[in-house]
Amino acid sequence: MKIGVDICEVKRFKEKSIKFYEKIFKNDEILYAKKYKNYAEHFAGFFCAKEAIMKAIGVGIDKINVKDIEILHLKSGKAVVNLSGNAKKIFNSLNEKQIEISISHTKEFAVAFAIIY
Which of the listed CATH numbers 1.10.3720.10, 3.90.470.20, 3.30.70.1450, 3.30.43.10 matches domain 2-116? Predict the structure, then answer.
C-alpha cells in the first residue's frame, strides 16, 4: 500500500485564463469545475488529488505530466482516477491494482488524499 496527500490554497486557481487551466486539466475536468460558481475550489481539489497520486506513486512532476492524471466523478459524486501516458505506465509497474482518492475543499484550501493498493 502507498499513500499520498496534498493541500493547496484555492486562490492559486481563481481568475486564471483558460490556457492556464488547459495546461493542468483535461477538458472534462474543466467542464466539471466551471459548472460551479466556486470553480476555483474544484480546480484546487483536482490539483491536490493529482499531486497526492504522484506522491503515492513515488514520482514527481518531472516524471508524470499532470494531465496524465484525470479526476472524474461518478454519478454518486465519488471522485475517481483515470490514468494515461507515463502515469499509467508507472502505476502498472507498481503491481498495484487500485487508486482511491478523497478530495475536500473550503473557500480557502483544498486537500486530497490518495491510497494505492
Answer: 3.90.470.20
Q: What residue ranges do the domains of the chain occupy?
A: 2-116
Packed helices 85-93 and 39-57: angle between N→C axes, nearest 10 degrees: 40
Where does the pLDDT of residue 85 fall: very low under 50, low under 70, confident under 90, or very high at 90 and above? very high
Q: How many CA atoms lie within 13 A of 23 on its CB side?
A: 6
**Mean per-residue pLDDT for 14-34?**
96
